[in-house]
UniProtKB/TrEMBL annotation:
Major site of localization recorded for this protein: membrane
Membrane topology according to the record: Peripheral membrane protein
GO terms of molecular function: calmodulin binding
Gene name of the encoded protein: SPA17
Biological processes annotated in GO: binding of sperm to zona pellucida
Intracellular or extracellular location(s): Membrane
Pfam families, per database record: IQ (PF00612), RIIa (PF02197)
Organism: Ictidomys tridecemlineatus
Domain of life per record: Eukaryota
GO cellular component: cytoplasm; membrane; sperm fibrous sheath; sperm principal piece
Protein name: Sperm surface protein Sp17
InterPro entries: cAMP_dep_PK_reg_su_I/II_a/b (IPR003117), DD_CABYR_SP17 (IPR047579), IQ_motif_EF-hand-BS (IPR000048), Sp17 (IPR012105)
Gene3D superfamilies hit by this protein: 1.20.5.190, cAMP-dependent protein kinase regulatory subunit, dimerization-anchoring domain
Domain RIIa: 14-51
């Protein structure tokens, strides 16, 4: 997006719009007396949250904006989720197969014990 009526064409960085929307929403909600100080505290809080959680709202906002125009932005997340699901499915299947094999072994052992006890009776 460029600035109208200007010889220069500045682009708003991806995710910046979402950051400003969040700030605007909080300003309207809180109605602070000193807006610049409130904005500074708001962004300080966002920085602390980003450092603690490794979640960057600007990056996420950029992906959301990009998703609106280009649906390939979330493919990486979808592929990671699919890989996790496939890995979980393989683990579940392996555990079930192991359970079935153990049950078969138990059955074979109990059948063998029954056969031996019957042979001893004869």
């Amino acid at each position: 997006m460029s600035i109208p009526f200007s010889n220069t064409h500045y682009r708003i960085p991806q995710g910046f719009g979402n950051l400003l929307e969040g700030l605007t929403r909080e300003i309207l909600r809180e109605q602070p007396e000193n807006i610049p100080a409130f904005a500074a505290a708001y962004f300080e809080n966002l920085l602390e949250k980003r450092e603690k959680t490794n979640f960057d709202p600007a990056e996420w906002g950029a992906k959301v904006e990009d998703r609106f125009y280009n649906n390939h932005a979330f493919k990486e997340l979808e592929e990671e989720e699919k890989e996790k699901e496939e890995s979980a499915a393989v683990k579940i299947q392996a555990a079930f197969r192991g359970h079935v094999a153990r049950e078969e072994v138990k059955k074979m052992k109990s059948d063998k014990v029954k056969d031996e006890t019957e042979e001893e009776k004869e």
